[in-house]
Amino acid sequence: MNASAEPSDRPGPVDSPHDPVSSPAVRMRGVNKAFGDNVVLQGLDLDVAPGERVVIIGPSGSGKTTILRVIMTLERPDSGTIEVNGRHLYHEQKGGQLKPAGEKHIRSVRSDVGMVFQHFNLFPHMTALENIALAPIKAKGMGKREAHQLGMDLLDKVGLVEHANHTPGQLSGGQKQRVAIARSLATEPAVMLFDEVTSALDPELVGEVLTVLRDIAEDGTTTMMLVTHEMGFASEVADKVIMFDNGQVIEEGLPSEVLKDPQNERTQAFLGAVVKH
Amino acid sequence: MSTDTDPVTPSPAGAHHVAPPDIRPWWLRPKTFVIAAGVVVFAAFMWRFGGGDIRFSTEHRPRPGTTFDWDYFFALVPDMLRGIWVTAQATVAGFAVALVIGLLLALGRRSRLRVVRLPVALFIEFVRSTPLLIQLYFVYYALPDWDITLGAFVTLVIGLGVHYGTYCSEAYRAGINSVPKGQWEASTALNLGPTTKWSQIIIPQAIPNVLPALGNFLIAGFKDAPLGSTIQVTGILAFATAASGRSFDAGVEPYTLIGIGFLLVSIPSAWLVRRLERRIAYERIS
Ligand SMILES: Nc1ncnc2c1ncn2[C@@H]1O[C@H](COP(=O)(O)OP(=O)(O)OP(=O)(O)O)[C@@H](O)[C@H]1O
Ligand SMILES: [Mg+2]
After folding, report:
1. Can you give the CATH number for the domain in which B177 is found?
2. Which of B191, B279, B286 to probe the A interface (max A CBs under 10 A)?
C-alpha cells in the first residue's frame, strides 16, 4: 500500500532480505515477555510457513495465549523480533538499523494478521452483518455495498445468512463464534490466530465451529495458528503441533509424532492428563 | 432459542433467503455523532435567539392586606413563563456545552501525553471543588479585567457548561472504562483506526452506561441555573426577585409560582430522561 514507508524494500545492509515467496508467514526470534516476575515467553523462536496450520498445545498458564497476543500486537514483547510475511512487526529499518516502529508501521503490518477470541468479542450494538462489514469499510476502504455483499457471502459460508440482521445477543454461542470467524475472514488476513475458540461453548455447539475451521483449513491459503484442547481436531487439521511449556517450545513435529508418540516426558504427562480429563 | 440447530450448511448459491444488506433506518442506530450534531445545532440556535433581555412587566401588584392574592398570582404567570424559558434555555445550552467539554476532558485525561493528562486532571479537580456561583462571578466580574467581556446569558451558559462538563467527564470516564477489554482488543485485531474505534465501538457502548448520570446532571443543572440571576440573567429567579421587590408584601405569590414552574419542568424532563435511558438500553440488548 505504501511502499515508501517500507525502507526494508530498499537495497542495503539489511539483515533479512526476504524474498516474499519464501519468507515465513510468521518468524519469531528471541521473543521475551514477562508480566512482572512471571516470565511467560523466554527467548521464543518460532517459524510458521505460509499456508501452514500450526496447533499450539501446552498446560494452562504456560503462555499459549500470550504467543498469539504478541503477534496480534495486543501485548508488546519485552525484546526479540517478530516478522509477518517478511516484514518486521515491531521494528522499522532506519539507516540500515532496526529501530522500534511507529504506530503507522505496526498498523500496516498488522493488517496481515487476524484473530478470533475465546469469548468472541463481537460488537454487541451491531448486527452480525455490521460486525463483519465494519473492518472492510473502515480499515480497508471498501465500499459499503460491496462490503455488505462480502458480509453476506461470508455469512453464507458459515451458514448464518438468516441471522444477518440479528445482534449478537440474539445468537447462540456457536453462532456468535461463527460470526466472529466470518468477521475476521472479511479482512482477508494472511495469518489467522485462533485462541481456544471452542472452549467457551457448550459441548453440542463445538462441532459447528470446528466445521467452519475445517473449511478454512481446507482452502489452504490462510496460515493458521490455533491454540486448542481439541486433540482430535488438532491431529486432523494440523501440519505441525507445538508443545509449549516454561516459556519455550519443548517439542514440535507432525501430529502423528507429537500427539501419538511424544518423546518429551512433559508432553507425555500433559497429553496423559488431557486424555484422562 | 435458535432455529438454526443444524450445523453449518451453506445455502445453495443464489438461495432465496439471502437477505438484503441491513436497512435499519439511521435513527434507530446508535450513531452518536448525529445526536451530537443535533445538539450543536440546537446550541447554536439557543445562542442566537435565546436569552434576549427580557423586561418583566411592572404593573401588577397584590391588593394590600391579602396574604395570598390569586388575581396577582395569575397575573404573574406570563412573566414567570418567560423567566423559566430563559432559565431552561440556559440549562439546555449549558448542558450541550457540558457534553462536548466533558468528552474533550475525558479524552484529555486518557491522553498518552503527561503534559495533556496532568493539566486536564488538575483543571477538573479545581472546577469541581469550587462553587458554580464563584465561577460565574469570576467569569462575569473578573474576566473583564483581562478584556474578556461576556454577556450575562453567555456567561451562565459557559459557567454551567464548564462546571457540568467536569462532572460529565467523570461520567464519560466511567462509561469508557465500562466497555469490556475484549471490545478494544477486537478493534485492534480488526486493525481499526482510532477514529473508527472511538466513534463506532467505544462511545456507542459507553453511552448507555453514562446516560443515567448525564440525565441527573441535566436536572441538577436546571436547578443551578437560577444562580444566573446573580449576574443579571433575567431568568426565573430574577423574575421573582423583581416581582417581590415591587411592594412590601408581594413575595409569597412569585416564589410560590417559581416552585410550581420548577416542578412543571423538572418532572416531565426526569420522566423523559428515564424513557430515553430505557430506550437506548433496550436498543442495545436487542
Ligand atoms: N495481562 C496480564 N497481566 C499479568 N499477567 C498475565 C497477563 N496475561 C497473562 N498473564 C500471565 O501470563 C501467564 C500466561 O498466560 P496465558 O494466558 O498466555 O496462558 P495460556 O497458556 O493461554 O493459559 P490457558 O490455557 O489457561 O489459556 C499466566 O501465568 C498469566 O497469569
Ligand atoms: Mg489461553
Report:
1. 1.10.3720.10
2. B191
Distance of CA A277 to the CA centre of its chain: 26
Q: Which of B48, B130, B236, B107 is CA-nearest to residue B99?
A: B107
Domains held by chain B: number: 1
Structural domain harbouring B167? 68-279
Share of chain A above pLDDT 70, in %: 91
Number of cross-chain residue pairs from A and B with Cβ atoms under 8 Å apart: 127
Q: Tell me the percentage of chain B whose pLDDT exceeds 70.
A: 73
Please give the Cα distance from B49 to B51 (Å, whole number).
7
For chain A, how far is it from start to end, CA to CA, in angstroms? 49
B19 touches chain A (CB under 8 A): yes
Give domain status of residue B4, yes or no.
no
Which residues in chain A come in under a pLDDT of 70?
1-21, 275-277
C-alpha cell at A222: 490462510
* Residue B187 is assigned to a structural domain of this protein: yes
B191 touches A108 (CB < 8 A): no
Q: What pLDDT does B42 receive?
A: 66
Ligand nearest to the CA of A33: 1
Question: Could you tell me if residue B27 is inside a domain?
Answer: no
Structural element, H or E, at residue A88? strand A87-88
The interface pTM score, or ipTM, of the predicted complex is 0.89
Neighbours of ion ligand 2 (CB under 5 A): A 65
Interface of A with B in 98-137 (CB under 8 A): 107, 110-111, 113-115, 117, 119-125, 127, 129-130, 133-135
Q: Are A190 and A85 in contact (CB under 8 A)?
A: yes
Cβ–Cβ contact B21 with A under 8 A = yes
Which chain B positions have a beta carbon within 8 Å of A112's beta carbon?
none
Beta-bridged to residue A194, according to DSSP, are A116, A226
B57 domain residue, yes or no = no
- pLDDT band for position B53 (cuts 50, 70, 90): low
Distance A63 CA to ligand 1 centre (A): 5
- What are all long-range contacts of B216-221, with beta carbons under 8 Å and residues at least 24 apart? B216/B273, B217/B95, B217/B98, B217/B164, B217/B167, B217/B168, B217/B171, B218/B91, B218/B95, B218/B269, B218/B273, B219/B266, B219/B269, B219/B270, B219/B273, B220/B164, B221/B91, B221/B94, B221/B95, B221/B98, B221/B160, B221/B164
Beta bridge partner(s), residue A88? A83
Listed in sequence order, the residues at least 6 apart from A261 whose beta carbon sits closer than 8 Å to its beta carbon are none
| B183 to chain A: closest CA residue | A121
The larger pLDDT score, comparing residue B17 to residue B118, is at B118
- Angle at Cα A194 formed by Cα A182 and Cα B19, nearest 5°? 10
Verify whether ligand 1 is closer than 6 Å to residue A211 (CB atom).
no
